[in-house]
Amino acid sequence: MEEDRSWHLADDSQEMALTEFEFLLWRVFSSFIRWQEDCSAAICDDELNGHEIAILHIIGIKGRPKSSYEICRLLNRDDTANIRYGIKKLVKQDLIEKVDNGSKKVTNYTVTKKGLDIITRYTVARKSLLASRLTGDDVKQLQDITRQLTTLRGYYDEAGRSAASYTPENNKEQEVA
What is the pLDDT of residues 132-148, one digit of tens each? Predict the structure, then answer.
Protein backbone atom coordinates (compact mmCIF):
# COMPACT_ATOMS: atom_id res chain seq x y z
CA MET A 1 0.00 0.00 0.00
CA GLU A 2 1.48 3.32 -1.10
CA GLU A 3 1.49 6.18 1.39
CA ASP A 4 -0.59 9.23 0.46
CA ARG A 5 1.98 12.02 0.53
CA SER A 6 -0.19 14.75 -0.99
CA TRP A 7 -0.52 18.01 0.84
CA HIS A 8 -2.28 21.29 0.04
CA LEU A 9 1.08 22.99 -0.58
CA ALA A 10 2.18 20.63 -3.36
CA ASP A 11 0.80 19.82 -6.81
CA ASP A 12 3.84 18.02 -8.25
CA SER A 13 6.99 16.17 -7.17
CA GLN A 14 9.08 19.38 -7.09
CA GLU A 15 6.60 21.11 -4.78
CA MET A 16 6.28 17.93 -2.70
CA ALA A 17 10.05 17.79 -2.19
CA LEU A 18 10.00 21.43 -1.06
CA THR A 19 7.03 20.81 1.23
CA GLU A 20 8.66 17.76 2.82
CA PHE A 21 11.84 19.78 3.37
CA GLU A 22 9.96 22.69 4.95
CA PHE A 23 7.95 20.39 7.21
CA LEU A 24 11.18 18.72 8.35
CA LEU A 25 12.78 22.15 8.86
CA TRP A 26 9.94 23.09 11.26
CA ARG A 27 10.52 19.89 13.20
CA VAL A 28 14.31 20.30 13.24
CA PHE A 29 13.95 23.88 14.47
CA SER A 30 11.54 22.77 17.20
CA SER A 31 13.91 19.96 18.21
CA PHE A 32 16.81 22.43 18.34
CA ILE A 33 14.87 24.88 20.53
CA ARG A 34 13.73 22.04 22.81
CA TRP A 35 17.36 20.80 23.03
CA GLN A 36 18.58 24.27 24.05
CA GLU A 37 15.86 24.57 26.70
CA ASP A 38 16.50 21.06 28.07
CA CYS A 39 20.25 21.64 28.20
CA SER A 40 19.77 25.00 29.89
CA ALA A 41 17.34 23.53 32.43
CA ALA A 42 19.89 20.81 33.26
CA ILE A 43 22.61 23.31 34.16
CA CYS A 44 20.77 26.25 35.74
CA ASP A 45 17.64 27.26 37.64
CA ASP A 46 16.87 30.26 35.44
CA GLU A 47 13.94 29.52 33.14
CA LEU A 48 15.10 30.48 29.67
CA ASN A 49 13.44 29.71 26.37
CA GLY A 50 15.44 28.83 23.29
CA HIS A 51 15.32 32.38 21.93
CA GLU A 52 16.67 33.85 25.19
CA ILE A 53 19.43 31.24 25.26
CA ALA A 54 20.38 32.25 21.72
CA ILE A 55 20.46 35.94 22.73
CA LEU A 56 22.68 35.13 25.74
CA HIS A 57 25.13 33.19 23.57
CA ILE A 58 25.15 35.89 20.86
CA ILE A 59 25.96 38.57 23.43
CA GLY A 60 28.72 36.32 24.76
CA ILE A 61 30.44 35.92 21.37
CA LYS A 62 34.09 37.03 21.64
CA GLY A 63 33.35 38.79 24.95
CA ARG A 64 32.36 41.97 23.10
CA PRO A 65 29.17 43.90 23.96
CA LYS A 66 26.34 43.74 21.42
CA SER A 67 23.42 46.02 20.56
CA SER A 68 19.91 44.74 19.87
CA TYR A 69 20.55 45.55 16.19
CA GLU A 70 23.64 43.32 16.14
CA ILE A 71 21.74 40.54 17.90
CA CYS A 72 18.97 40.72 15.29
CA ARG A 73 21.50 40.65 12.45
CA LEU A 74 23.47 37.73 13.87
CA LEU A 75 20.26 35.71 14.41
CA ASN A 76 18.78 36.85 11.05
CA ARG A 77 15.69 38.09 12.83
CA ASP A 78 13.68 41.24 12.27
CA ASP A 79 11.32 40.94 15.24
CA THR A 80 13.18 43.53 17.32
CA ALA A 81 10.34 43.79 19.86
CA ASN A 82 10.78 40.10 20.74
CA ILE A 83 14.56 40.46 20.88
CA ARG A 84 14.22 43.46 23.20
CA TYR A 85 11.78 41.52 25.38
CA GLY A 86 14.34 38.69 25.63
CA ILE A 87 17.07 41.20 26.48
CA LYS A 88 14.87 42.73 29.17
CA LYS A 89 14.27 39.30 30.71
CA LEU A 90 18.00 38.46 30.66
CA VAL A 91 18.82 41.80 32.34
CA LYS A 92 16.17 41.13 35.01
CA GLN A 93 17.73 37.70 35.67
CA ASP A 94 21.18 39.34 35.98
CA LEU A 95 22.56 37.32 33.06
CA ILE A 96 23.41 40.39 30.97
CA GLU A 97 23.77 44.09 31.72
CA LYS A 98 23.78 47.40 29.90
CA VAL A 99 27.16 48.82 29.02
CA ASP A 100 27.84 52.53 28.86
CA ASN A 101 29.23 53.05 25.38
CA GLY A 102 28.86 56.83 25.29
CA SER A 103 25.91 56.72 22.90
CA LYS A 104 22.41 57.85 23.77
CA LYS A 105 20.95 56.16 20.69
CA VAL A 106 22.41 52.65 20.95
CA THR A 107 22.44 50.46 24.04
CA ASN A 108 24.97 47.67 24.21
CA TYR A 109 24.80 44.64 26.46
CA THR A 110 27.44 42.38 27.92
CA VAL A 111 27.29 39.08 29.77
CA THR A 112 27.48 39.27 33.58
CA LYS A 113 29.53 36.91 35.75
CA LYS A 114 26.36 34.86 36.36
CA GLY A 115 25.62 34.80 32.62
CA LEU A 116 29.18 33.72 31.82
CA ASP A 117 28.88 30.90 34.36
CA ILE A 118 25.72 29.66 32.60
CA ILE A 119 27.41 29.91 29.17
CA THR A 120 30.40 27.95 30.49
CA ARG A 121 28.24 25.22 32.08
CA TYR A 122 26.08 25.05 28.93
CA THR A 123 29.22 24.63 26.80
CA VAL A 124 30.44 21.76 28.99
CA ALA A 125 27.02 20.06 28.92
CA ARG A 126 26.77 20.56 25.13
CA LYS A 127 30.16 18.92 24.63
CA SER A 128 29.21 16.01 26.86
CA LEU A 129 25.65 15.45 25.62
CA LEU A 130 25.83 16.41 21.95
CA ALA A 131 29.25 17.11 20.46
CA SER A 132 30.74 13.90 21.89
CA ARG A 133 28.29 11.88 19.77
CA LEU A 134 29.69 13.21 16.50
CA THR A 135 32.13 11.18 14.44
CA GLY A 136 34.50 12.47 11.77
CA ASP A 137 31.94 11.54 9.10
CA ASP A 138 29.25 13.42 11.04
CA VAL A 139 31.41 16.55 11.08
CA LYS A 140 31.91 16.39 7.30
CA GLN A 141 28.15 15.93 6.82
CA LEU A 142 27.45 18.90 9.13
CA GLN A 143 29.83 21.06 7.10
CA ASP A 144 28.06 20.03 3.87
CA ILE A 145 24.62 20.63 5.39
CA THR A 146 25.77 24.03 6.68
CA ARG A 147 26.81 25.07 3.16
CA GLN A 148 23.49 23.84 1.76
CA LEU A 149 21.47 25.62 4.45
CA THR A 150 23.41 28.82 3.80
CA THR A 151 22.36 28.61 0.16
CA LEU A 152 18.76 27.86 1.14
CA ARG A 153 18.73 30.79 3.57
CA GLY A 154 19.59 33.01 0.61
CA TYR A 155 16.71 31.55 -1.42
CA TYR A 156 14.26 32.16 1.42
CA ASP A 157 15.60 35.69 2.08
CA GLU A 158 15.22 36.57 -1.59
CA ALA A 159 11.75 34.98 -1.80
CA GLY A 160 10.78 36.95 1.32
CA ARG A 161 11.86 40.21 -0.30
CA SER A 162 9.86 39.29 -3.40
CA ALA A 163 6.84 38.39 -1.27
CA ALA A 164 6.89 41.87 0.27
CA SER A 165 5.77 43.31 -3.07
CA TYR A 166 3.98 40.26 -4.48
CA THR A 167 0.51 40.60 -5.93
CA PRO A 168 -1.19 37.34 -6.92
CA GLU A 169 -2.33 37.26 -10.55
CA ASN A 170 -6.00 37.01 -9.60
CA ASN A 171 -5.75 40.21 -7.54
CA LYS A 172 -4.22 42.21 -10.44
CA GLU A 173 -7.51 42.04 -12.33
CA GLN A 174 -9.40 43.32 -9.30
CA GLU A 175 -6.96 46.23 -8.89
CA VAL A 176 -7.55 47.36 -12.49
CA ALA A 177 -11.34 47.29 -12.17
Answer: 999 999 999 999 999 99
Helix axes 113-129, 13-43, angle to 10 degrees: 120
| Beta strand ranges found along the chain (DSSP E) | 66-67, 96-99, 108-111
Are 79 and 85 contacting, i.e. CB atoms less than 8 angstroms apart?
no
Please state, in angstroms and rounded to a whole number, the distance separating the CA atoms of residues 15 and 148: 18
Which H helix or E strand runs over 14? helix 13-43
3-state secondary structure (DSSP) of residue 115: helix
Please report which helix (H) or strand (E) contains residue 135, including its range: none
Closest to 52 in 3D by CA, of 1, 91, 13: 91
pTM to 2 decimals?
0.83
Ranges of residues in the chain with a pLDDT under 50 are none
CA-closest candidate to residue 155, choices 143, 163, 144: 163
Distances from the Cα of 18 to the Cαs of 8, 13, 148, in angstroms? Answer: 12, 9, 14
How far from 127 is each of 21, 124, 132, CA to CA, in Å?
28, 5, 6
